[in-house]
Amino acid sequence: NAGVTQTPKFQVLKTGQSMTLQCAQDMNHEYMSWYRQDPGMGLRLIHYSVGAGITDQGEVPNGYNVSRSTTEDFPLRLLSAAPSQTSVYFCASSYSIQGGSPLHFGNGTRLTVT
Amino acid sequence: TQLLEQSPQFLSIQEGENLTVYCNSSSVFSSLQWYRQEPGEGPVLLVTVVTGGEVKKLKRLTFQFGDARKDSSLHITAAQPGDTGLYLCAGRHSGNQFYFGTGTSLTVIP
After folding, report:
1. What are phi and psi of A38, to 5 degrees?
2. How confident is the model at residue A114 (pLDDT cuts 50, 70, 90)?
3. Cis peptide before B8 (omega within 30 of 0)
4. Could you tell me how far CA A51 lies from the centroid of its own chain?
5. Which of A50, A56, A102 is opposite residue B45, by nearest beta carbon?
6. How many angstroms separate the CA atoms of B5 and B8, rounded?
7. Which of A49, B54, B55, B86 can bridge B65 by disulfide, Cβ–Cβ 3.0-4.6 Å?
8. Which of B47, B58, B100 to mutate: most A Cβ within 10 Å?
9. Span A37-95, pLDDT tens digits
10. Do A40 and B44 count as a contact with CB atoms less than 8 A apart?
11. Strands (E), A16-86
12. What are the chain A neighbours of B99 within 8 Å (beta carbons)?
């Protein structure tokens, strides 16, 4: 049982390049989300999805796109990378957003934009 | 502006000491969770509290949810080096968003 799988683990981009961070879960979770983690700021929500075909913005959505064509996959796209997007990105899934169900996290993607 | 503020941001203590980490907000949360994160890994859930005034114990860890459901605390008794890590509180405020606190980095020195 793999849980939440993120790829790649590390990535270096030049300013202006685009890329997609992959996230897949095998737990049949309806809720999936993307966070970025920066020192001293905890985790900030970028985008989330409550099911296939449904996505919504979180706290810091600018510069990122998402789609949810299947229950399993929730890719995060950086349209035109900027140095301010240097961060560690985490994908998380949950059985339900209701009732305090836990978030299950991947091991993160460390992104550097030069 | 962070919805959830944690204090202290950094904590370095000797093995065997007690400590308390605080998670505060001006907003009401329907539930609040505590996670622990180790380097190179994603956060892992420790506990969920859903009722104002609720106290939960997990071995040497005691979690409390404030009566007004705006704050929470994590108390560790007799800290051990294995408790070292980043502790994060997270709350469901409204809708489908989970907000995370700013984090407390704990180091327990043997």
Report:
1. -120, 150
2. very high
3. yes
4. 15
5. A102
6. 9
7. B54
8. B100
9. 998 788 999 999 999 999 999 999 999 999 999 999 999 999 999 999 999 999 999 99
10. no
11. 19-25, 31-37, 43-51, 54-57, 64-66, 76-78
12. 45, 59
> Which residue among A43, A58, A102 sits closest to B88, beta carbon to beta carbon?
A43
d(CA B106, CA B74): 12
Nearest Cα of chain B lies from the Cα of A45 at a distance, in angstroms, of 7
For residue B103, the distance in angstroms to the closest alpha carbon of chain A comes to 5
Q: Which amino acid is at A77?
A: R
The rounded distance, in Å, linking the Cα atoms of A99 and A63 is: 31
A92 touches chain B (CB under 8 A): yes
Q: For B16, which DSSP code?
A: T
Four-point Cα dihedral B38, B44, B50, B53, nearest 10: -30
pLDDT of residue B1: 57
The identity of residue B93, as a single letter, is: H
Q: Which two tokens stand for residue A25?
A: 């879960």
Tell me, what's the pLDDT at A92?
96
> CA-nearest residue of chain B to A54?
B96
